């Protein structure tokens, strides 16, 4: 695993070496402790990063943040098997644009980075690629484009990697509208089976990303399918007890329609999944009662990096197909499910309290205050009149019976 370690470096002007000198001497040497990176799989990129860090340290007082930014980027490209030397038109697979998307998801979806940190990190990465371009390690084009940005008082040169301040997730709901949702489902249905099921669990079952990442394939059995004949499959608990990492470890029932349940079962019987599961089991022999539904090509269970890759790929396909960007985060798929479910229930039920209670339970909200945000959103939106327009994509027809 790449890490940062400390070394001591001496910076200064080297005196001209005389014929009888045994070693170099410095004019006014400066001794500095510098943070460098070690443990990279690609030793050449490690060497280049450390040369860039040394260059930075010779010019400024503090270079630790530069090293931290490059370490973060290195972990990203290694986790996603991205070539740092080659530009690509596919942003999710780009060493620069892909990392920018990753930082934005950290800021907006997980809330584990501040905007200022993300902005600083992408600027350091741009500086590193300027160093690589200057030294003819990589081509000039394809990693970013220069552009002019306005600060309000003057224009400054920037790049299209720049991260603008955005509203953090949690301040307001931002579900997809009817048009976006229909388009999203069209795009999702063109993706590979694993990625299609992953995104459908978010928009069709309202799962959080960590719940999708850790979903247990062993819950999708013929016994659970035939418990009763209802359109919704009942009494399937998701919780850490069955390997699914729910928020606050709170158990709840999985909301899933019969057709969607059957499509997951079909995937589990496919050659693709069986090969991935065999690969996973080789290094996880002692995990009894748990098989991840979503497995990478290297045989590891899905994590946040893999989820982000799926999301960035989905947004790219959406933009290619419809000619416009989808400015949403993965969590907005869950918000789309929640607002639509509440819309259905408040239309069908006379008792709004009952409807709120059902949505709170289905979504796994800790208290009613969170669920009430969905009511507030519905009062100020032009969301679809019939949320079934979204959910019926998982079947020919959807009927939600109000109990």
Q: What keywords describe this structure?
A:
DNA recombination; elongated; two-stranded antiparallel sheet; mainly alpha; 2 domains; 10% strand; 403 residues; disordered C terminus; two-stranded antiparallel ribbon; Tyr recombinase domain-containing protein; DNA integration; DNA_brk_join_enz; DNA binding; 15 helices; single chain; hpI Integrase, Chain A
Give a topology summary:
Blueprint: E1 3-14, E2 26-38, H1 43-59, H2 64-79, H3 97-110, H4 115-134, E3 146-150, E4 155-159, H5 178-188, H6 193-205, H7 209-213, H8 222-225, E5 237-238, E6 252-253, H9 258-268, H10 271-282, H11 304-322, H12 331-348, H13 352-363, H14 368-379, H15 388-391
Helix pairs in contact: 2-4, 3-4, 5-11, 6-12, 12-13, 12-14, 13-14
Describe the structure.
One of its GO terms (molecular function) is DNA binding. This is Tyr recombinase domain-containing protein. The protein is elongated and about 95 Å long. The protein contains 15 helices and 6 strands. The chain folds into 2 domains: 3-159, no CATH class; 178-394, Intergrase catalytic core (hpI Integrase, Chain A, Orthogonal Bundle). The chain is mainly alpha-helical. The longest helix has 20 residues, at 115-134. α5 crosses α11 (304-322). Strands 1-2 form a two-stranded antiparallel sheet. 47% of the residues lie in helices and 10% in strands.
């Amino acid at each position: 695993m790449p890490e940062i370690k400390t070394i001591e470096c001496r910076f200064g002007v080297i005196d001209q070496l005389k014929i009888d000198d045994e070693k170099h001497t410095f004019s006014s040497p400066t001794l500095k402790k510098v943070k460098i990176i070690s443990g990279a799989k690609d030793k050449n990129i490690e060497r280049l990063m450390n040369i860039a860090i040394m260059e930075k340290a010779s010019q400024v007082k503090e270079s630790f943040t530069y090293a931290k930014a490059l370490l973060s980027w290195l972990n990203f490209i290694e986790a996603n098997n991205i070539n740092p030397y080659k530009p690509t038109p596919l942003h999710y697979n780009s060493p620069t644009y892909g990392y920018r998307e990753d930082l934005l998801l950290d800021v907006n979806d997980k809330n584990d980075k501040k905007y200022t940190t993300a902005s600083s990190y992408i600027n350091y990465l741009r500086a590193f690629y300027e160093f690589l371009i200057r030294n003819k390690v990589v081509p000039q084009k394809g990693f970013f484009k220069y552009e002019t940005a306005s600060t309000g008082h003057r224009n400054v040169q920037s790049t299209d990697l720049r991260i603008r301040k955005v509203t953090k997730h949690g301040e307001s709901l931002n579900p997809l509208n009817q048009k976006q949702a229909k388009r999203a489902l069209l795009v999702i249905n063109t993706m590979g089976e694993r990625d299609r099921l992953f995104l459908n669990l978010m928009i069709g079952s309202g799962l959080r990303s960590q719940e999708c990442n850790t979903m247990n394939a062993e819950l999708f059995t013929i016994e659970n399918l035939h418990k009763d004949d209802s359109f919704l499959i009942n009494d399937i608990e998701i919780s850490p007890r069955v390997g699914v990492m729910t928020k606050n470890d709170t158990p709840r029932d999985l909301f899933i329609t019969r057709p969607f349940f059957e499509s997951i079962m079909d995937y589990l019987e496919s050659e693709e999944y069986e090969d991935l599961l065999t690969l996973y089991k080789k290094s996880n022999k002692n995990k009894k009662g748990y098989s991840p539904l979503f497995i990478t090509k290297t045989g590891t269970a899905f994590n946040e990096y893999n989820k982000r890759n799926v999301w960035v790929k989905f947004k790219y396909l959406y933009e290619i197909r419809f000619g416009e960007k989808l400015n949403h985060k993965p969590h907005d798929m869950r918000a789309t499910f929640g607002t639509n479910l509440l819309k259905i229930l408040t239309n069908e039920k006379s008792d709004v309290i009952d409807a709120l209670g059902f949505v709170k339970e289905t979504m796994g909200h800790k208290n009613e205050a969170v669920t009430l945000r969905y009511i507030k959103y519905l009062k100020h939106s032009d969301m679809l009149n019939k949320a079934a327009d979204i959910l019926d994509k998982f079947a020919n027809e959807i009927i939600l019976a109000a109990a």
